[in-house]
Every structure is written in structure tokens, then in C-alpha cells.
Amino acid sequence: MTTTMAPKRRLNCVAPYQICRQDRRYIRRQICRRGWVALALACCVAATATGCGGPSRTNVAKNEPQGAWTDAELAKVRDGDKTTLTAANATVTDDDLARLVGLVKLERLLLDDVKITDAGLAHLSTLTGLKTLRVTDQTPGHATIGDDGIASLAVLSDLEELLLRSVNATDAAAETLAKLSKLKMLNLGATQMTDAGVERLADLPNLDSLRLGGSKLTDKSLEHFAKMSKLRHLLIHDAPVTDAGLPHLLALENLESLYIDRTQVTEAGLSELAEKKPAWHIHLNDAHVAGEHGHDH
Length: 297
Prior knowledge:
Layout: H1 21-49, H2 57-63, H3 71-79, E1 84-88, H4 94-98, E2 108-114, H5 118-122, E3 132-137, H6 147-151, E4 161-164, H7 171-177, E5 185-190, H8 195-201, E6 209-213, H9 219-225, E7 233-237, E8 257-261, H10 267-276, E9 281-284, E10 287-288
Parallel strand pairs: 1-2, 2-3, 3-4, 4-5, 5-6, 6-7, 7-8, 8-9
Antiparallel strand pairs: 9-10
Helix pairs in contact: 7-8, 8-9
């Protein structure tokens, strides 16, 4: 038995621009039907790429917290493409510092308003390329870093700048720091060091800038400061030093600025010093001090 094939749908119009009403309806149905098929296929492809319609796994991974620094940042440091790491506002913990172990190409580590301990600072002993370390502590009194943490820095032979304020640092910390022969800038703030500790710091051959204070420092410390021949900037604060010790500082031939805050030094004593050293920029309790004859600089 012969099967008769249904005739294909033919347009009745004789020219492309002469499409009749019936044929226009047919064309719209075909376009609509094929459009829905294409849309469905596109949705399937998108769902497969994003994990069955859910959020992309890649995006989730990127949004997961990675601590103070991302893995990508640390990889750049490891490869030498990045030599400085910064963090602030208490985002850094001891665990974050543990992630820095072995980054020998890191040169500058700047941590502001953080809260770390001696245990965290110990992780930095492997950063043998470090040249600058700045740690400001959000803890009242900066009491979380002491001699043990500073002892961890003894192996950082390339360290040139150290800002690490700690009320717990004693003469033992001075013994550690005296081994860092390349140290140029040292800012420890008010410490528990004595005159003996300052004497050890005087062994630093390249020290250019020093900020130090503490209730155990006396005029004898001023005598030790005078031995720091390359010193250009000196800030002494919160120490019971007096006018009697100021003449020792005249031996500092390269000194450019002297700041003395919250001590027993008087304006009269510093004015006499300014008269002898008119080129020095001298401040007492944040106020400029000029010589007796009004020298200014």
C-alpha cells in the first residue's frame, strides 16, 4: 500500500515582499518555537557552568575570608613580585603571622593598630630579607610584646628600620637589638630599659634615628646617647632626665633634631643647648625652643 506524504507547507506569495496574512502567522509560529528551544539550551549550558544553577564555586572561594592577606598576595611575595605587606585596624593575629613563614623576599612589613603577642612575632624569624618592620599595638600600654618577641628578631641581619613600641622591653631586648648592625632607625617608645640597656644600643654602628623613653632612664643614658656618632634624630620621652645631662649631647656632631617630651628637662636648659647648637631643631613638649638670643631654624 502506497503511503502518501503530506505536502510541505508552501508560501502562497510570489515574492519575498509579498507575504500574505496566513503565511505571516505561520512564520511567526516557527520563529517562536525555535526561539524557545534556543533559550532552553542556553539555560542548560549556564546551569552546568555554575553548578546546577547554584552560585559558582569559584565565586564562593573568592568570597571566603583568607585572613589579613589573600593567598594571591602571599604568592606574589613568594615569587618576588611584591616586597611590602601592610595591614591595619586589628585585622592581624598571630595566626596571620604564621602564614608569613618562609617569605624570604619580603622586605617591608607594616602592621598598624594590631594585637599580636610574642608568639606571633616569633614567626617573623624566618623573614631573612626583612628590612623594615613596623608594629603598633592597639592594646592599652602596648603590653603584648616583650623581650621574648624581640629575641625572635635577632636573626634578621638585614633589618634597617624597627618601630616596635613595648612597655615590656628590658635590657635583654637591648642585647638582642645591639646585634642588628644594619639598624638605622629604632623606635621603641617607653620601655623598662635602664642606662645599661642604652649603653648596649650605643654599639649600633649605623643608628641614625632613635626614639626611646622609660622611667628607668637617667642622665647617664644621655651620656650613652652621645656615643651614637651617626645619630641625626633623637627623641627622649617619659624619662626622669634633667638639664644636668644635656651637655653630653653636644658631642653629637651629626644631630639635626632633638625632641624631649615629659621629662625633667627645662626650657632654660634647652635654650642654653640651642645657643651652642643653633643649627639643631629643638623641641620641648612639642614646643620649639630657640637660643637665648633668639636664634631660629
